[in-house]
């Protein structure tokens, strides 16, 4: 016999403003099975919760309906109340008479009538609820961090400090990401490498961290708490356990000074062809961790010749005193088991060119990037003015190595531009452009730094002051307007870039005869981010940024249980935010792995194995690959039948399987067909 | 061809490649053709092949009474053979454990109410372009002749026979069509002969037999009959092979395969998908390909 | 001396009865089929003997769907309203004798442990006019089960087609006489039915085998091709199983009685999940045993009139006649040899 208690909340006057709560209470008291119907100003408050608890004990209620706000707000609250009063928490339902009623209707009569109907539906549902126990899933106490830029490094260090093993997988030969290549960082002008390298070293040495560089995630199987990840360890051709990092090999390499260095974003200099170039066996930058070289198979003479059955060069191997070079190295697939995964794959800059990977995005021809050597993007400029860059920090322009007397910085290249298909703001460009002007002016005192901007976005702590400093103290010249085009002209034998822009504040066109142009290109996710997301069942938007569970309240979780995100792979952000998010993700990982078992909500799908015809439709349709085909055998090992079976550790309770099952042999516990039909039918009365 | 068929089956039974051969025989009133289950190689003369071999024998592959007889060989026409492929793709049979004996079929004839063959081809056979069964282990009959017949029908495959009947129906107004189906479904008695004859209706407990909640009224009212027949067509979207067993079995003479054909045409037009053409193909409903039309699906 | 009516008189009779507010059921040619339907206009009907009719007239005594009562929840109580009585006159014209013969076979069942007013009221209010058969087909075997092309059982009146647009009328009951009173004229023409259909098995002998061989493996072998639909049961004049179901919502609806078929897999599924008739062989055994052993044991006649509807409508080319023939050939004859 159902003994249901209905508790209607006024929510102050959020609900009571449009819903007559007394009338509602009186009406629903008459519903079959309702043994008590009360209302109160704030059900979620202590006296409100006590009211519910007392009635549960006094009347021996078998179900509770709280008519108030959205379950997103307080379902957990009221379930806890019930549990503490001795009633199974899954025998509590909520009727949302706030977001679904009083907040969207102003006619009191209509809103009151609707509230009564909503409660009627909830009563029909709770009448058919079953007591449920949370599902316990055992957990592997190890985390995987994908990406070792500042986000991945911070997350790994925090998880390791929390006493949990971490495997860090980085696709480049060294950790550090984009931050390792920056010059100085805003708003403090800290040297980027100086603040990052200690952490890079720690990640390489921490006893709880296993660092796997020059590796990529190949495949992810399993589910939250029990992931099986296959990692591809790419062939380095150098045994880093033997190598001492002495440098004999890369100095002897005949390709030294000939190959574009991706770490320097393929900068090339006209006055010295070797600047910004590396050898075929190389360390990407001197502070690399691990400080061991890698052989670039596409450019190594020996490896290329081996494809044709020959053995050319091999000088590095002859030079190596540690006998660490092995030209027969192969990729290796390594399987690890982890309980949680943190994705920190970072960003790259929008490539500007006509050919774009993402079919929704268009390129720019207007600014001559790729055509004029002295039009560079912001990351290339970082390498030019970085003390550890190819020019040792001297601002030299790529075409002829001259010191530029006028540099134009253009903000919002790609960002906020509907015509190119990128509608978002890349957040950091206003700040780093101001920084670029300051660093340039500090080195070229009488140089001119021009900035073309649409707005200045400097919302962080001490950020606006930083931009004012660039303008007021360091004399950066800011023009509010966009640049329509850049054309190269030779003036007095020197190549100049004519920048045609506008100043909307004065209403006049502006033409700058620049020596160099720096484009603040949009931040986009790294290549391959969507493919990795698909391996992890994580959602992503049309740009490839990974999707968080909730933009305000759950910024580091994803809808794939056990997979977290942090850093620029989730959206454009600066270093302070990245570090904060990374620590947040680490916190989530530590929470998840703090118990030997994971507790999951039991409102998941369940297959009636007697009825299932094993057609496999649900197996294919499940977005979380939570359903598998299983055999049922008798005691003698004979096959009785096959059936679909839901993995309670993975099912997210979305109900797609229920929709697709032709025989309706699968149902959602807590949201059964019977319950939903009963709710709908209650409206027909 | 009958002799070829009998010899092939005899060999399979003698060599114990299979335990039972499911084929056609003259078993009904007046020698009407129906399914036979031959386990003894000396009884293969019970097998026949002619233009009255109407049923889709693939329906027997899912039945426990037939599974109990052991590893089967099954005689299939072109349309029936695609049902075998769909059953394999949906995990209902292990394709390695069935010997599929395809025949070259030149078309099946209709029958009058006493079951006597009329001499004219069934609508669905008029536009057939699979006279030789595909995806089979053994083919009985002249494959070259089959190819000729296919080629002759190919220009009109999408417009003749059953498609013509559907087109005629679709040329009516929605009100007229609704009235047509009201008239048809008023005769439906919910015997479920359509479901029981269909090889692809193999659910252990059909959704029409489910209660708590009852999704489809079991009553033979217009409400129940519309719900049942339309739902069955939906559940066959991308799976129906157009064998016509449902229409043939309906004791009330309702042209059910017009419903199924509508959705089969949609599957072909929207997704280029024809049921049972490819062993190992993913199902149409519940899966997606990256080049599917709706942009919101990724 | 005989009584004769013309075709025109028959049509007028139908029209008059319609005008008087009676329900008139007759064979209607619809597309490729002939079915018994309730007509609204005499012109819809075919007045000629039909062998191959798609349905049985049993649905006009025992409908395929019938409301027993309606219910409405009122607070914590339920208000129940019974279905109204059947009060209309009903005339069914052009019935086959094998179809009409089912009615007296079913009478004892619907008046046995429960007086089924749904059936009995319709019986009381209905006048059945049969046509003596002018032809049979290979499916007919009425003669083997005590029937025949001019069997009067269940008929109130029978018409014999004289071939010239007129029919000899023979009335067997008061209702039949009353229907044709003042319409039929005297004549010296008499009609005759065609020869009865033949079959080469003795139903009695097969019935004995059925009664005595419950455990025989023959049942599974016999039923292999049956796919377990309900076509045979629903077109059969004597099959009468039904399912009682509640339809509607939890607070208002109706309890209904729908046809059910013993060949369906879940027909005997118990609430425990056990199914005593889990194979088609067991289900066919039940059908044939019911018709040829249990029912006659209880009420007297076979529960079969040899009409052939089942085998005509069976998609698998099965049916009672093929079953009896197979049993006769495979086991009954062998017993005798």
Summarize this entry quickly.
Chain B is 35% helix and 11% strand.
Write up this protein.
The complex is a heterotrimer of chains A (685), B (298) and C (337). Chain A is globular, with a radius of gyration of 31 Å. With 685 residues, chain A is an alpha/beta fold. Chain A has five domains: 4-132, Rossmann fold, CATH 3.40.50; 142-234 and 336-346 and 549-592, FAD/NAD(P)-binding domain (3-Layer(bba) Sandwich), CATH 3.50.50; 248-330, no CATH class; 350-524, FAD/NAD(P)-binding domain; 601-669, Alpha-Beta Plaits. Chain B folds into two domains: 2-155, no CATH class; 162-271, no CATH class. Chain B is 35% helix and 11% strand. Chain B has helices at 2-14, 64-67, 78-89, 123-126, 143-153, 162-170, 174-186, 193-197, 222-235, 245-249, 257-271, and strands spanning 20-26, 33-38, 72-76, 99-103, 109-111, 117-121, 138-140. In chain B, a hairpin with a 5-residue loop joins strand 5 and strand 6 (117-121). Chain C has 337 residues and is of the alpha+beta class. Chain C has one domain. In chain C, a hairpin with a 2-residue loop joins strand 2 (23-30) and strand 3 (33-39). Helix content of chain C is 31%, strand content 23%. Chains in contact: A-B, A-C, B-C.
Short key terms for the protein model shown above:
heterotrimer, A: 685 residues, alpha/beta, Rossmann fold, FAD/NAD(P)-binding domain, five-stranded parallel β-sheet, 18 helices, 25% strand, B: 298 residues, five-stranded mixed β-sheet, two-stranded antiparallel ribbon, 11 helices, globular
């Amino acid at each position: 016999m159902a003994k249901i208690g209905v508790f209607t909340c006024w929510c102050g006057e959020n609900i009571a403003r449009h819903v007559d709560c007394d009338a509602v209470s009186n009406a629903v008291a008459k519903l079959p099975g309702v043994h008590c119907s009360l209302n109160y100003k704030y059900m979620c408050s202590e006296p409100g919760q006590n009211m519910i608890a007392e009635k549960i004990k006094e009347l021996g209620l078998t179900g509770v309906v709280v008519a108030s706000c959205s379950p997103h707000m307080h379902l957990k609250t009221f379930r806890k109340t019930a549990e503490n009063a001795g009633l199974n928490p899954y025998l509590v339902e909520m009727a949302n008479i706030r977001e679904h009623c009083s907040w969207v209707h102003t006619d009191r009569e209509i809103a009151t009538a609707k509230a009564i109907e909503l409660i009627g539906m909830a009563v029909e549902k709770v009448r058919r609820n079953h007591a449920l126990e949370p599902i316990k899933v055992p957990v592997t106490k190890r985390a995987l961090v994908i990406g070792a830029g500042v986000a991945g490094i911070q997350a790994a260090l925090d998880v390791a400090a929390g006493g949990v093993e971490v495997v860090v997988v980085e696709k480049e030969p060294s950790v550090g990401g984009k931050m390792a290549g920056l010059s100085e960082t805003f708003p403090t002008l800290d040297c980027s490498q100086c603040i990052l390298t200690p952490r890079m070293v720690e990640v390489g040495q921490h006893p709880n961290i296993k660092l796997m560089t020059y590796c990529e995630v190949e495949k992810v199987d399993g589910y939250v708490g029990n992931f099986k990840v296959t990692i591809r360890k790419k062939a380095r051709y150098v045994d880093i356990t033997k190598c001492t990092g002495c440098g004999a090999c890369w100095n002897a390499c005949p390709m030294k000074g000939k190959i574009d260095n991706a770490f320097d974003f393929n900068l090339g200099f006209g006055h010295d062809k070797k600047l910004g170039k590396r050898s075929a066996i190389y360390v990407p930058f001197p502070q690399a961790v691990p400080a061991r070289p890698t052989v670039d198979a596409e450019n190594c003479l020996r490896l290329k010749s081996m494809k044709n059955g020959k053995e050319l060069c091999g000088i590095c191997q002859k030079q190596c005193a540690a006998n660490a070079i092995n030209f027969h190295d192969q990729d290796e697939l390594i399987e690890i088991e982890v309980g949680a995964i943190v994705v920190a794959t970072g960003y790259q800059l929008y490539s500007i060119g006509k050919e774009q990977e993402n079919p929704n995005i268009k390129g720019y021809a207007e600014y001559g990037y790729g055509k004029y050597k002295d039009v560079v993007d912001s990351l290339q400029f970082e390498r030019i003015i970085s003390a550890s860059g190819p020019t040792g920090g001297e601002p030299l322009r790529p075409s002829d190595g001259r010191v530029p007397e006028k540099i134009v910085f253009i903000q919002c290249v790609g960002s906020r531009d509907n015509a190119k298909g990128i509608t978002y703001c890349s957040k950091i460009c206003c700040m780093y452009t101001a920084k670029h002007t300051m660093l340039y002016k500090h080195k070229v005192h009488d140089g001119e730094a021009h900035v073309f901007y649409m707005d200045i976005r400097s919302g962080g702590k001490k950020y606006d002051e930083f931009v004012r400093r660039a303008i007021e103290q360091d004399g950066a010249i800011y023009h509010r307007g966009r640049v329509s085009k850049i054309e190269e002209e030779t003036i007095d034998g020197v190549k100049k870039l004519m920048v045609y822009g506008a100043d909307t504040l004065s209403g006049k066109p502006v033409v700058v005869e620049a020596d160099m142009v720096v484009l603040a290109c949009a931040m986009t996710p790294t290549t391959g981010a969507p493919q990795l997301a698909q391996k992890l069942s994580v959602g992503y938007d049309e740009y490839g940024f990974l999707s968080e569970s909730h933009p305000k309240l759950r910024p580091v979780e994803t809808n794939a249980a056990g997979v977290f995100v942090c850093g620029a792979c989730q959206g454009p952000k600066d270093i302070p935010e990245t570090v904060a998010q990374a620590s947040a993700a680490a916190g989530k990982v530590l929470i998840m792995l703090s118990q030997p078992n994971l507790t999951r909500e039991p409102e998941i799908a369940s297959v009636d194995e007697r009825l299932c015809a094993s057609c496999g439709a649900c197996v294919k349709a499940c977005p979380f690959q939570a359903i598998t085909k299983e055999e049922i055998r008798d005691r003698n090992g004979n096959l009785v039948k096959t059936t679909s079976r839901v993995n309670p550790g993975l099912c997210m309770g979305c109900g797609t399987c229920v929709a697709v099952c032709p025989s309706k042999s699968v149902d959602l516990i807590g949201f059964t067909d019977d319950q939903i039909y009963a709710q709908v039918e209650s409206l027909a009365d | 061809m009958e002799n070829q068929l009998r010899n092939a089956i005899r060999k399979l039974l003698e060599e114990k490649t299979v335990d039972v051969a499911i084929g056609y025989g003259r078993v009904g009133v007046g020698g009407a053709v129906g399914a036979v289950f031959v386990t003894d190689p000396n009884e293969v003369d019970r097998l026949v092949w002619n233009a009255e071999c109407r049923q889709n024998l693939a329906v027997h592959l899912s039945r426990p009474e037939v599974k109990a007889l052991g590893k089967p060989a099954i005689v299939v026409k072109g349309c029936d053979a695609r049902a075998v492929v769909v059953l394999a793709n949906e995990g209902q049979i292990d394709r390695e454990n069935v010997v599929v004996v395809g025949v070259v079929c030149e078309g099946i004839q209709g029958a009058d109410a006493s079951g006597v063959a009329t001499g004219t081809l069934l609508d669905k056979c008029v536009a057939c372009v699979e006279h030789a069964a595909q995806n089979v282990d053994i083919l009985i009959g002249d494959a070259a002749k089959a190819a000729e017949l296919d080629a002759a029908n190919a220009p009109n495959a999408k417009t003749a026979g059953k498609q013509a009947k559907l087109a005629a129906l679709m040329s009516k107004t929605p009100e007229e069509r609704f009235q047509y189906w009201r008239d048809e479904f008023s005769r439906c008695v919910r015997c479920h002969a359509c479901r029981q004859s269909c090889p692809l209706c193999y659910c252990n407990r059909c959704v029409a037999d489910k209660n708590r909640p009852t999704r489809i009224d079991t009553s033979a009212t217009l409400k129940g009959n519309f719900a049942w027949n339309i739902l069955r067509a939906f559940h066959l979207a991308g799976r129906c092979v157009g064998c016509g067993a449902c229409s043939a079995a309906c004791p009330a003479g309702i042209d059910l395969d017009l419903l199924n054909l509508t959705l089969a045409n949609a599957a072909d037009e929207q997704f280029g998908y024809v049921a049972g053409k490819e062993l190992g193909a993913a199902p149409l409903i519940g899966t997606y390909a990256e080049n599917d039309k709706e942009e919101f699906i990724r | 001396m005989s009584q004769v009516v013309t075709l025109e008189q028959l049509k007028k009779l139908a029209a008059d009865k319609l005008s008087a507010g009676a329900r008139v059921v007759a064979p209607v040619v619809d597309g490729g089929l002939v079915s018994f339907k309730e007509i609204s206009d005499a012109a819809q009907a075919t007045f000629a003997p039909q062998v191959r009719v798609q349905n049985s007239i049993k649905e006009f005594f025992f409908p395929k769907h019938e409301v027993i009562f309606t219910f409405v929840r009122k607070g914590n109580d339920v208000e129940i309203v019974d279905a109204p009585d059947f009060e209309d006159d009903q005339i069914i014209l052009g019935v086959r004798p094998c179809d009409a013969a089912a009615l007296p076979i079913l009478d004892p069942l619907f008046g046995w442990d429960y007086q089924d007013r749904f059936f009995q009221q319709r019986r009381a209010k209905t006048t059945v006019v049969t046509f003596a058969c002018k032809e049979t087909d290979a499916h007919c075997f009425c003669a083997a089960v005590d029937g025949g092309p001019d069997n009067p059982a269940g008929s109130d009146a029978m018409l014999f087609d004289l071939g010239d647009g007129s029919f000899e009328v023979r009335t067997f009951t008061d209702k039949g006489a009353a229907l044709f009173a003042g319409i039929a004229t005297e004549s010296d023409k008499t009609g005759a039915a065609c020869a009865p259909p033949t079959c080469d098995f003795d139903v009695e002998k097969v019935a004995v085998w059925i009664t005595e061989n419950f455990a025989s493996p023959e049942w599974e072998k016999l039923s292999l091709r049956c796919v377990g639909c309900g076509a045979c049961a629903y077109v059969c004049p004597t099959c009468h199983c039904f399912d009682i179901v509640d339809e509607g919502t939890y607070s208002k609806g109706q309890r209904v009685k729908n046809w059910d078929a013993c060949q369906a897999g879940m027909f005997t599924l118990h609430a425990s999940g056990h199914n005593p008739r889990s194979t088609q062989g067991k289900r066919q055994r039940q059908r044939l045993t019911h018709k040829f052993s249990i029912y006659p044991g209880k009420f007297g006649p076979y529960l079969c009139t040899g009409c052939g509807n089942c085998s005509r409508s069976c998609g698998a080319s099965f049916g009672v006649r093929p079953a009896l023939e197979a049993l006769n050939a495979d086991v009954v004859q062998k017993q005798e040899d």
